[in-house]
Structures are given as structure tokens and as C-alpha cells.
């Protein structure tokens, strides 16, 4: 067996693209104390280099015969017993259209965000940690994307989780002084969290999903004897269905649910907004949170094939679809009442990922899977671009006003015209305004897939969510950029306009990435009609070849398309107009009591977050205290003490026999001898 | 697989035993000389062992005694990796001693080496009586070291430690003798490959398990551990924490791998092990969350970690056993690093109380990163070695579950054990948050990284990451005689 199989040299970009950022991270670490400029350049350049490498991979798409695997030996078992459950785990790189598309999204968006970060983090005292973690994040994310098996993917999976943990808690001092509270904390009242708490929360919550995913991976490997995506897909079809596949699939879905912040594990992402804006843009909007969708896209062929043999497996896709739809709706309602700018965007991210999950789910339930599958990937791409732009622009706004609360903003469109443009264009894309914006095409493709699948409740939920999306987006733009300027919070804190130098648009190094991403949004929108066709043909053909469906790719009938576009336009208007009247034109909000109690229910995050603290966090703390105080220091200590005192008591009694009197001693010796003789007799005689 | 006759195993033990008086003699040269000597000696022999693999599959017969049977030393694919890990950890721990110790501790290094030699001998003994003898050597050496150089409460802690672990050792001896009575041999090399599990043998197994429970501080026999760990001198605590889990894991793997392979097919044995394992994982983990100083967090973490060992052993599969070995090695590196860090906190900041420390991340970036990575390894998170331990243990248990037909009890154990790894991450991150993050406290005002202290710790953490990325270094070497 060749040690390295596959064209490792010719396809070097496939492994260099994640190796380069890792190397960059190490160089950053070494340069940290030497030269800040050099460190920042290396930090950004290494991601730019992997963007270039990803672009090279993109040129392979038209010609190559996918999938391409590069493998090398990794985990070998020495056991000689013949019944090893799996012979070995190979190290592998999987090059196919899905991984190439994802790598391009991650690296290209990442490179722009890194450029923005140079200026954004410029005022921080020491940023070695930031650059190290950002580079390590991009490396881990690309490693995750290029992995050809589930175990290796877990390494990237936890790597991005660790970087996310450390970057959410970047301002780990948790300073309570009003100025940092206004910029680095998240939430209000008793749901207000400092950065280090938010980081821990994010890690533990996603870890719960990951652990279930590991259990699912184990079950999948036990039922198919492999960890590799392609090998498993090749084996599930043959030899009927395995009873473990359904539990395995649902457990693996939990990994995706945790990472992509879907219900019921969505509560960590809104609080992850304590991180710096580039972190929110890169990790918590554009890339890491998409890993869950990517995972579902990766295992899609496996369970699609399995569902053909055993219709019970369709339940996996149905669960994914409903999780996605429910999450899209629930978090959109939370975005509609959120008071913090970045938190609106975070809820919106959760909601939009819900759409992607929905797309992957419905795709699995129908023969024309490619509409949903390509729609999900398309929305992933367009969302990565426009949401990154929104987060970067939000970072500039928060920088300028010194507060994360929208009621400290207002009327900013004249003071920050470029930033306004950088928010407006992506916002229109997020709303799905027709023709010119990428979000329109990708979201409509998802809605089309839902319509084609014939699941009307799902369609109703997803259309309703379109309205709410438009409502919260217009509300956000209105509150930040329209209306009368409110006194900046920083001024209120400092007792004067001390932060006057922040008043306008940020420097070009920060504005340009935002505008570039906005331009990309329009470009993707202008070409949308070709893009959706291209994606559907590419992914439909490729996944079709994996699952054994070879047929004409046709993108639904025009009537369905027009119906979907019409309906979504109507729902856009329903959501956008009230928000426009209230937040842009300044109409009074109707003070209608049921409306207010619904609003407060949404603002309390549907009480899900509180319920988790009440059900899991506080009881574990109480139990831990009870064990530490009552059991360990209480019961066990006193048991030890009583063992000690009873021993002393016995010793005390025994001591009394040692009188020293000859008579007593002789009697005792005699009794002992008799006992010994009796024992000997008992043993020997029979 | 075959064993080759090779005197190297004997040389290794003799050299280890001899190094102890040498260290004592070297004290004349300067107070750091013994630590430097033992650090160099242990790391070099650990590296030689790991690199050459010369001991993989070798044995040496010392004597043939009339009634105890053959007294032999041997190394198979279980002894060699765990021994290499022991020597590496102990060597690094010694280095940390020579790099920054405030007051000279005459004789400590000699006793430390004696302790390491005892653990090494235990890993290499083929005869169970010899195993017991080496276990006693470790007990006495560590008891004296705690009693002489421990913290303020050392008197009570060392006596408690001695009584508890001596009781455990005696139960182990009783079990060994009963096993001898039913199988007729004490020698791993001549143990019959398949012995029907007679009632006597099962009773022996029960006693051995009870002895291991004490040695590995499994609830309810864990009473000695929190006190002993918090009163030990830091370097001994580091070595002690390695062997607490490793010796227990080794004994169970040896007994169930080489002596009584069939015993685990009895559902009572594996069921009891799995139940105790699960209980310990949850109990220790939850107790660790609410401890007030780092040492005690680490103590309860050990109790939780021992639970995974039991689950892996209960799986009775090759993959599960492999997971146990990796888990023991990963725990050794991670926990030793953490104990050295707690020693550094106590030494240079005067406390390792979680309430008094805070905001150390900026002051001690290297130490802080090491602390975080070690905790992550304990929680089984990639890219650290702990991941493979946890993964293989869960994999082994799941595969045993499936091959035996799904029974709800085992399924429940599997699900809860997997879910409980979140608790491991929780106490680790919660501890890290209290020490590393937040505002600086008065106690942490003067903190700074001392590179001389940090080097051994960095080496341990790097070993965890390197082995996590290259697990084949262990997985490719693991097999249990007679294979």
C-alpha cells in the first residue's frame, strides 16, 4: 500500500490552504513581541494566501472528475484479533464542489475581515492573541471543510470551537465600568453576561451537541465499518438497512444543531456577541456557524441513499427541516425586539441558518433534491457575504457611538454615509428584495424547494419569517441611521463629547472591506439567475452521481417560481411597511396590550435561556455544593472519624487484656494453643 | 505476538532502583544536582524506551522459585507505552524541581526516584506477587515523602493516605492469592489462555477490583485522595496523580487481558464496573465544580477520570482497552502539568485558591495557556490526546453494547457517560475562568511567567497535542500479552 495515495503534489492547494493559516498563526506568535506591523501583515497575508489557494481550487471545478481523495495513513490499530470494528482511520482530504465552494467562502470573506481587523484592533494594547486565534480559526475551519472523514473533521470542528471560545472572551477582564459594559458585555438585566461567561457558555453548549455527534459518529462507524464520507456512502446502499442508522443520523444532527445554533441549542450565539466585531463577522456569521449546515450537506448523500432503502430515514431530513423552520421563526421574533445592534444581527444569523437547515431538510425528502441542496449552499454563500458586511459595519457604528445599544444611535446616515451604504445594501439582501440582491435569489430558491416538497406548514412558517425578517431589518436600519441623533452613550459616560474623533466614517482600511462585501452582494444578485442554475447543475450532478440519481436537472416550472417570488414580495411588504412607518417615519408604536406582552415574551428570549439556567446550570451548582459540603466534608468525614474512634475503642479494650499477670497470660496462651490444634485437626483429619 | 528474551527489562529496573541512592549521593554536589540527574536519567530512559521499542515484546526470567513459580519481568504493548509515559512525566517533573525550588529538600529526589522505580517495576512484573511487592514500595516511598515534605496538614493526610492505600494493597494481595488458588499460577507469561471462571477466581477478581478502587480512588474508596493531593509536595502530587489512574488502569487491563480474559464476559463484573464508572464520572465531575482551590478541583477531577477507565475496561474490547491506556497516559501528562502549575501558584503567589486568584491570563500567558490546554485534554477535546482516550473508550463500550444485544442499562450508561463529558469541560473551563479571567486580584498582582518553571509544563502540554495529532505512536504499539 502506498503511504500517500492520490496526487498530493498536483493538488497541493487542497492541503496548503489550511496549512498556511496554521503556519501564519505560529509566525504571529513568534512576531508578537518583535514587530506589531509585521505580525498584522503576516496574520492577514496568510489568510489572503489561502484565499488565493482556494481560488486555484475553484478553477478545477469545470474539468475535474469529482470526488477526488488524497489519503495518508493516520491511526493504525496493532491489535491482532481479527474482529477489529474498523481497520484504521486514514488521514484524508476530500476535494469536491461542496468543499471547494465552502473553502472559497471561508477564505475570501476571511481575508477581507482580516484586512478590516488591522485598523479595528489598532487601538488595543496587544493583539498577538487576536491574530493567533483568528489565523488558527481560519486554518481549523478550512481543515474541517477539506476533511474526508468524520473523525478528522472533529479536529477542525473542535478547533474552531476553541478559537471561538477564546475570541468571544477576548476582553476577558469582564470589566464592569460603564464604558466597557456598554461595548464588551451583552444583554441587559439578569440576562446580561460578561465576555468570559459568554465564551464558556458558547463552548459548553456546543460541546453538548458535539458529544452527541461523537456518539452518532461511533454508531455510524459501527454500522458501516468506516469513518470516511465516501466509503460510508458507498456501503449504506448495499445490504439493506441498518437499525442504527436513524439514531446515528439524529445524533449527528445534534452536532450540527449545536454548532449552527439551532433550536434547542441556539442560546449561545446571541450571547457570543461579546467578541470584537471581526470575530462576530467571521466566526459567528460567515463561517463557523455554517459548519453545521456543511456537516448536513456532507452526510446528505449517506442518508439520502439510506432513505431510499429504508423510508424511515426520511425522518432525519424531516427533523432537520422542522428544526430549521422553527429556529428561523423563533429567532426572527427575537431579533424584532432586540435592543442591541449586534444582537439583532446574531438572532438574524440564527434565523437565516435556520433557512439553510430547512433547505437541506426538504431536499432530502424529494426526488428533485438539488433545488433545496443548491438553495441551501447558495444561501450559505450569499449570507456569508452580506452578513459579514453587516457585522463589520456594525462594528464601525459601535466604535463610533461607544455603545452596543441602538437607542444610543440614531440619525447616523449623514455622519457616516459610507457605513450607511455598507449597511443598506446587505440589509436589502437580507430582506430578499428582488433582482439586484443575492439574498433574493438564494432565499427564493429555498422557498421554491419548500413549495415543491409540498409541505404547506413549512411553507407557511418560512413565509411568515420573511415578513419578520423584513420588519427587524428595517427597524434596525431605521433606529441606527434615521430619526433624531441621540446623545452618544460614550459622551454620557465621559460627561462630554470626548469621543469626537469617532464621529465620522472609519478609515478606508475599515470601510473598503465593507464596501467590497456590499459590492459582492450586488454582483451575486445581478448574476443570481445564472448562479442558481449553475449551482443546481453542478451540485445536482455531483450529488446525483454519489447517490445514484442520474437525470435531467430542471429547476421547477416557471409558474412555481413566479408564485414564490410573488408571495415573498407580498410578505416583504407586509413586514417592511410597518417597520418603515414606525422606525423611519417616526410613527408612534401602537400601545396595545397583547402586542406588548408578546413583545416582552420575545424580548425574554421565549424564556428558553432562563429555562436552561434553571434546569441545568443552577441545579448542577447546587448539587456540587451539596456533594462538597454535605457528602465529602460531612458524611464521609464523619464516617472516617467514627471508624477511627471505634478502632481506638477496640484497641482500648484489647489493651485491658494485657495485664501482665502470669495467670491471665497462661490462660490466654493455652486457649490459643487449643484453637490452633483444633484448626489443624479440622484441616488434616478429613 | 511473541516475546523475545531480553535482559534490557532487568537493566531498566536495576538502573531505576540504583538511581535513588545515586541521587542521595549527588546531594553533596549542590542542591539542584539530584533533580538534574534524575530529570536527565528519567527522560533519557523514557525516550530510549519510546524510540527504540526495544522492550516491545521482551521478557527476562529472574528466578524460578519453588512455590511462587517463575519470577519474571516482561514488557508487552501495554507495559511499554505506559512505562515510557511514566518515565517522561517523572523526568519532566524532576526538571521542574531543579529549575525553581525555594528551599532545599534533602532526600526528596531519592525518595521520588524510589517511587518511580516502584511504579515502573509494577508495570514490568510478570509475577503478581512481584506486582504487589512493587506496589508496597511505591506506597511507602510516597507516604514518607508526603509526611516529610508535605504541606501544613501533612501529618494527618499522610497517615490517612497510608491506611487507605495499605488496605487497598492488602485487598489486592488477597485477590491475587485467591486467583492463584483457582488458576494455579501467578505468572502472566504462563497463565492459561482460557480459564473457566470458578467462584474462587471470581471472588479473587472482586478483591482485586476492590484493591484497584482504593488505589485509583474510586468512590466510595476515594477518601484519601483530596487530602493527600492537597498536602503533597507539588512534584510528588504530579507523579502521584499519574500513577493513581495509570496503576489502576494497568492492573485491570493486565488482569482482564492476560490472566482472566473470560471474566468480563460475566455481565455482573462488567455491569458493576460500568455502573461504578458512570457514577464516578458524574460524582467527581460535579463535586469538582464547587471546590475552592485548584488542588481540590484536580483531586475530584481524578475521581471523575477514573470512571472512564472503568467504563473502558467494562467494554472488554480491544478498542476500549486501547482507550483506557491512552486515557491513562493523557491523564498523566495533563494532570501532572496542572499539579505543577498549582505548585507554581502556591510557590510564587502564595495561594491556589480560586477565590483569591483572578485575571492571570494577561500576567502569565504561557502558564495560562498550558492550564487551559491541560484541562481540555482532561475533557477529551481535540487536538489533545485526551480526545482519543475518550473516543476509543466510548467506541469500545458502544461496540460491546451492540455485540451483546442492546440492553437498556448499558445503553443508558453509554449515553450518560458521553453526555457527562460536558461536565468535565465545565469544571475545567469554570476553574480556568476563575483563575485566568476577570479583574486582577491582589494575590495575582506580582504574577509573571517564569520560563524555567514553564519549560517542563510546556513539554507536557506539547506532548499532549503532539500525541493527539499523531495517535499512531500509541495505537500502533498497543497489544496485550498473549495477544
From TrEMBL, chain A:
It is a multi-pass membrane protein. Residues 147-176, 196-468 form the NADH:quinone oxidoreductase/Mrp antiporter transmembrane domain. Residues 89-130 form the NADH-Ubiquinone oxidoreductase (complex I) chain 5 N-terminal domain. Its main location: membrane. Keywords: Membrane, Transmembrane, Transmembrane helix, Ubiquinone. One of its GO terms (molecular function) is NADH dehydrogenase (ubiquinone) activity. One of its GO terms (cellular component) is membrane. The chain crosses the membrane at residues 12-31, 43-61, 89-118, 130-147, 153-172, 211-232, 244-261, 282-307, 319-341, 353-371, 377-398, 418-441, 456-474, 509-530, 562-583, 611-628, 666-685. Pfam families: Proton_antipo_M (PF00361), Proton_antipo_N (PF00662). It is found in: Membrane. This is NADH-ubiquinone oxidoreductase chain L. It comes from Methanosuratincola subterraneus.
From TrEMBL, chain B:
Keywords: Cell membrane, Membrane, Transmembrane, Transmembrane helix. Its main location: membrane. InterPro entries: CPA3_Na-H_Antiporter_D, NADH_UbQ_OxRdtase, ND/Mrp_TM. It is a multi-pass membrane protein. The chain crosses the membrane at residues 6-24, 36-62, 82-100, 107-124, 130-149, 161-181, 201-225, 237-257, 269-289, 309-330, 357-378, 385-406, 412-432, 453-481. It is found in: Cell membrane. It holds the Pfam family Proton_antipo_M. GO terms for biological process: ATP synthesis coupled electron transport. Residues 125-398 form the NADH:quinone oxidoreductase/Mrp antiporter transmembrane domain. This is NADH-quinone oxidoreductase subunit M. It comes from Methanosuratincola subterraneus. The lineage of its organism: Archaea, Thermoproteota, Methanosuratincolia, Candidatus Methanomethylicales, Candidatus Methanomethylicaceae.
Amino acid at each position: 500500500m502506498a503511504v500517500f495515495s492520490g496526487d498530493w503534489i498536483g493538488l497541493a492547494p487542497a492541503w496548503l490552504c489550511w496549512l498556511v493559516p496554521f503556519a501564519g498563526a505560529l509566525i504571529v506568535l513568534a512576531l508578537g513581541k518583535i514587530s506589531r506591523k509585521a505580525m498584522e501583515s503576516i496574520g492577514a497575508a496568510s489568510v489572503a494566501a489561502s484565499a488565493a489557494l482556494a481560488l486555484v481550487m475553484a478553477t478545477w471545478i469545470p474539468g475535474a472528475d469529482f470526488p477526488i481523495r488524497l489519503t495518508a495513513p493516520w491511526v493504525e490499530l496493532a491489535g491482532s484479533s481479527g474482529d477489529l470494528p474498523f481497520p484504521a482511520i486514514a488521514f484524508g482530504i476530500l476535494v469536491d464542489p461542496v468543499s471547494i465552494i465552502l473553502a472559497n467562502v471561508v477564505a475570501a470573506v476571511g481575508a477581507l475581515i482580516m484586512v478590516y481587523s488591522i485598523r479595528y484592533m489598532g487601538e488595543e494594547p496587544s493583539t498577538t492573541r487576536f491574530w493567533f486565534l483568528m489565523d488558527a480559526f481560519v486554518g481549523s475551519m478550512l481543515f474541517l471543510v477539506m476533511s474526508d472523514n468524520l473523525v478528522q473533521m472533529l479536529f477542525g470542528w473542535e478547533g474552531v470551537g476553541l478559537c471561538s471560545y477564546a475570541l468571544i472572551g477576548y476582553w476577558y477582564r469582564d470589566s464592569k465600568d460603564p464604558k466597557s459594559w456598554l461595548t464588551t458585555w451583552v444583554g441587559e438585566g439578569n440576562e446580561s453576561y460578561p465576555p468570559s461567561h459568554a465564551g464558556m457558555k458558547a463552548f459548553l453548549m456546543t460541546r453538548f451537541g458535539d458529544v452527541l455527534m461523537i456518539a452518532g459518529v461511533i454508531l455510524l462507524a459501527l454500522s458501516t465499518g468506516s469513518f470516511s464520507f465516501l466509503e460510508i456512502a458507498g456501503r449504506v446502499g448495499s445490504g439493506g438497512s441498518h437499525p442504527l442508522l436513524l439514531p446515528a443520523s439524529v445524533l449527528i444532527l445534534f452536532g450540527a444543531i449545536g454548532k449552527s445554533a439551532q433550536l434547542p441549542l441556539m442560546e449561545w450565539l446571541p450571547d457570543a456577541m461579546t467578541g470584537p466585531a471581526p470575530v462576530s463577522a467571521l466566526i459567528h456569521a460567515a463561517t463557523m456557524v455554517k459548519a453545521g449546515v456543511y456537516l448536513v450537506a456532507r452526510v446528505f448523500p449517506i442518508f439520502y441513499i439510506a432513505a431510499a432503502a429504508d423510508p424511515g430515514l426520511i425522518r432525519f431530513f424531516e427533523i432537520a427541516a422542522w428544526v430549521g423552520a422553527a429556529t428561523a421563526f423563533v429567532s426572527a421574533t427575537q431579533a424584532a425586539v432586540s435592543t442591541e445592534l449586534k444582537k439583532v444581527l446574531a438572532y438574524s444569523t440564527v434565523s437565516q441558518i435556520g433557512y439553510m437547515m430547512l433547505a437541506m431538510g426538504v431536499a432530502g425528502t424529494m426526488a428533485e433534491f438539488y433545488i433545496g441542496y443548491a438553495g441551501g449552499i447558495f444561501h450559505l454563500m450569499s449570507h456569508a457575504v452580506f452578513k459579514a458586511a453587516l457585522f463589520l459595519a456594525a462594528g464601525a457604528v459601535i466604535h463610533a457611538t461607544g455603545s452596543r445599544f441602538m437607542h444610543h444611535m440614531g440619525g447616523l446616515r449623514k455622519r457616516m454615509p459610507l457605513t450607511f451604504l455598507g449597511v443598506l445594501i446587505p440589509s436589502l439582501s437580507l430582506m430578499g428584495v428582488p433582482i439586484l440582491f443575492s439574498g433574493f435569489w438564494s432565499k427564493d430558491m429555498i422557498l421554491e424547494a419548500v413549495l415543491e416538497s409540498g409541505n404547506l406548514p413549512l411553507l407557511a412558517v418560512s413565509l411568515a419569517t420573511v415578513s419578520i425578517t423584513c420588519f427587524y431589518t428595517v427597524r434596525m436600519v431605521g433606529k441606527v441611521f434615521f430619526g433624531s441623533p441621540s446623545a452618544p452613550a460614550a459622551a454620557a459616560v465621559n460627561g462630554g463629547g470626548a469621543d469626537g474623533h469617532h464621529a465620522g466614517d472609519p478609515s478606508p482600511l475599515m470601510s473598503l472591506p465593507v464596501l467590497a462585501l456590499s459590492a459582492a452582494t450586488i454582483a451575486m444578485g445581478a448574476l443570481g439567475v445564472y448562479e442558481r442554475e449553475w449551482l443546481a447543475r453542478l451540485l445536482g450532478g455531483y450529488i446525483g452521481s454519489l447517490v445514484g440519481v442520474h437525470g435531467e436537472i430542471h429547476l421547477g416550472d416557471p409558474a412555481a417560481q413566479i408564485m414564490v417570488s410573488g408571495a415573498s414580495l407580498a410578505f416583504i411588504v407586509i413586514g417592511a411597511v410597518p417597520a418603515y412607518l414606525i422606525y423611519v417615519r417616526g410613527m408612534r408604536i401602537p400601545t396595545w396590550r397583547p402586542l406588548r406582552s408578546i413583545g416582552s415574551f420575545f424580548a425574554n428570549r421565549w424564556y428558553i435561556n432562563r429555562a436552561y439556567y434553571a434546569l441545568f446550570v443552577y441545579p448542577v451548582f447546587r448539587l456540587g455544593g451539596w456533594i462538597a459540603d454535605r457528602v465529602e466534608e460531612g458524611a464521609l468525614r464523619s464516617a472516617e472519624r467514627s471508624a477511627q474512634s471505634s478502632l481506638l475503642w477496640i484497641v482500648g479494650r484489647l489493651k485491658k487484656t494485657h495485664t501482665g499477670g502470669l495467670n491471665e497470660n497462661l490462660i490466654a496462651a493455652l486457649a490459643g494453643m487449643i484453637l490452633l490444634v483444633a484448626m489443624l485437626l479440622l484441616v488434616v483429619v478429613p | 505476538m511473541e516475546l523475545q528474551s531480553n535482559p534490557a527489562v532487568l537493566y531498566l529496573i536495576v538502573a531505576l532502583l540504583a538511581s535513588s541512592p545515586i541521587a542521595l549521593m549527588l546531594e553533596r554536589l549542590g542542591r539542584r544536582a539530584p533533580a538534574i540527574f534524575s530529570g536527565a536519567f528519567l527522560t533519557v530512559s523514557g525516550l530510549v524506551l519510546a524510540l527504540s521499542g526495544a522492550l516491545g515484546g521482551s521478557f527476562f526470567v529472574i528466578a524460578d522459585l519453588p512455590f511462587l513459580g517463575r519470577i519474571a519481568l516482561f514488557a508487552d504493548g501495554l507495559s511499554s507505552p505506559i512505562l515510557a509515559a511514566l518515565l517522561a512525566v517523572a523526568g519532566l517533573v524532576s526538571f521542574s524541581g531543579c529549575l525553581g525550588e525555594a528551599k532545599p529538600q534533602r532526600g526528596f529526589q531519592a525518595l521520588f526516584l524510589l517511587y518511580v522505580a516502584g511504579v515502573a517495576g509494577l508495570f514490568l512484573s510478570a509475577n503478581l506477587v512481584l506486582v504487589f511487592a512493587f506496589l508496597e514500595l511505591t506506597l511507602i516511598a510516597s507516604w514518607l515523602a508526603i509526611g516529610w515534605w508535605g504541606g501544613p496538614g501533612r501529618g494527618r493526610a499522610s497517615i490517612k493516605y497510608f491506611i487507605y492505600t495499605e488496605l487497598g494493597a492488602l485487598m489486592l494481595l488477597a485477590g491475587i492469592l485467591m486467583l492463584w488458588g483457582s488458576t494455579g499460577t501467578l505468572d502472566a507469561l504462563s497463565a492459561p489462555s482460557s480459564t473457566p471462571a470458578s467462584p474462587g477466581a471470581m471472588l479473587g477478581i472482586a478483591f482485586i477490583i476492590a484493591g484497584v478502587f482504593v488505589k485509583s480512588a474510586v468512590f466510595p474508596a476515594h477518601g484519601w485522595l483530596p487530602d493527600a493531593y492537597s498536602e503533597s509536595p507539588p512534584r510528588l502530587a504530579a507523579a502521584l496523580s499519574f500513577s493513581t489512574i495509570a496503576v489502576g488502569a494497568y492492573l485491570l487491563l493486565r488482569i482482564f487481558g492476560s490472566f482472566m480474559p473470560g471474566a468480563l464476559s460475566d455481565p455482573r463484573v462488567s455491569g458493576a464496573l460500568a455502573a461504578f464508572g458512570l457514577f464516578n464520572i458524574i460524582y467527581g465531575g460535579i463535586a469538582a465544580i464547587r471546590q475552592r482551590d485548584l488542588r481540590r478541583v484536580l483531586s475530584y477531577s481524578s475521581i471523575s477520570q477514573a470512571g472512564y477507565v472503568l467504563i473502558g475496561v467494562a467494554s472488554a474490547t480491544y478498542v476500549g482497552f486501547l482507550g483506557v491506556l491512552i486515557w491513562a497516559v493523557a491523564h498523566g501528562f495533563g494532570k501532572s502539568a496542572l499539579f505543577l502549575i498549582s505548585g507554581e501558584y502556591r510557590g510564587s503567589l502564595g495561594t491556589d485558591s480560586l477565590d483569591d486568584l483572578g485575571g492571570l491570563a494577561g500576567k502569565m500567558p504561557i502558564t495560562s495557556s498550558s492550564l487551559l490546554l491541560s484541562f481540555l485534554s482532561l475533557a477529551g477535546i481535540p487536538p489533545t490526546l485526551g480526545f482519543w482516550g475518550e473516543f476509543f473508550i466510548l467506541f469500545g463500550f458502544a461496540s460491546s453494547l451492540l455485540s451483546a444485544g442492546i440492553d437498556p442499562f448499558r445503553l443508558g450508561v453509554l449515553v450518560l457517560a458521553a453526555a457527562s463529558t460536558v461536565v468535565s469541560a465545565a469544571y475545567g473551563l469554570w476553574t480556568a475562568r476563575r483563575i485566568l479571567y476577570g479583574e486582577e486580584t491582589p494575590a495575582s498582582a506580582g504574577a509573571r511567567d517564569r520560563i524555567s518553571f514553564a519549560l517542563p509544563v510546556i513539554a507536557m502540554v506539547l506532548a499532549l497535542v503532539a500525541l493527539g495529532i499523531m495517535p499512531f505512536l500509541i495505537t500502533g504499539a498497543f497489544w496485550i500479552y498473549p495477544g
